[in-house]
Amino acid sequence: MLDRSYLHRGILGMSRYPGGGVEGWFPIHYAAAVLAAHRLSEDPAYAPAVAAMQAQVDLMMATHAHLFQGAPAGRLDPDAIGRIARCIEERIHRHSHSGHSVIFAAHAMRALTAAPECGRVEVVEGICQVIGYFNRNQGVGLDPAAVGAFPDFSPQGVADLVSAELRRIPDVVPISIGHIGLGHVMTHGHALIELSRLGHVHLAEKGYGAFCAHLGGARAA
Question: Is-contact 58 134, C-beta < 8 A?
Answer without folding.
Answer: no
